[in-house]
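Data availability (excerpt). The following record was deposited with the supplementary files.
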Amino acid sequence: MAVKRGRVLAPVALAGRYLAWISGELEAEDVSPAVMGRSIGSARTRTLARDVIPNLGLAAAGGWVVYGTGGNEGEPPRLVAVRTDGTDRKVLTDSLIAPVASRGGTVVWAEQDGDRQRVVTRELATGRTWVAADMPQCNPGCYRIDAVALADKGVAFTRGAIGSQPSYVVRRRFSDPKAQQIAVPNDPQPDLVPSSAGALYYVLSRGWYRWDFGEGKPRLTRYTGAAPPQVLRFEHGRWFVLHGPGCAQRLVVLGTDGQALTTMSPPAVSALAGAKKGDCVTLADLAWTGRQSLTSWFVVPKESEESHENAGLVGVLIASRKLAR
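Predicted structure:
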């Protein structure tokens, strides 16, 4: 666990017993965000990088931490990998266009070169790369790549429409010769979250869909309608779901039978932060290794929340106990 006053500790990444996070302010003006890292159980924290971009994500695997930086004066951001001891810094791409994602020892990102957009994976231990998709940005309508994700058997990503044409959810199994896509009309930015099974995404006013590898068509999950709970990820039969309003969020892990396996509630987070009952507790990020979660929360005193200020903010980082398989 880590507690830091005046800082938000997010996004986060977890690889084995090594955890990493970006430390910054809610409105970073005076202090630039920095990538921090340490081993679970160790009191020594190392600063791995400064002047990073939190909304481009964070990944950790195979002794490396991956983050986004740059993007000044009209230049696209870069995706950089650094070893956990702070050495051997490498630029993976200098034209990043979507937040990085990871699973196991592999990272995936989206990049753009001229009018071509690519989705690329890299095994951090070996350096082996694979181009999952290479396509024109416009053909005939134009698209963004808003999100990428890795499943056990392949890659998923979204193409958000710039205009009135449908958006697309795209997937490609590692063993498939080409990608598959499904049109998503009337939603310029379908939300994609991690799933071990394939593509898991939200369609505006309809709900959450699973498009698992091995299944020809997407299927609607139990989380339907215009305002379902916020699904964060699906991992081998476990649903990670956020319930409750912004200042009273509960992270619930559910089995496929709908029964709660574990819950992290605002009172528990407040107790760890030394906060008072009624203070505003908000989940900032979640990482999952397959058996263990790393969550980031920030707590704002009730009086600051009511006056729309961030005075007294506390960032909290919690590594869970390992769950049974």
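Summary of structural features: The radius of gyration is 19 Å.
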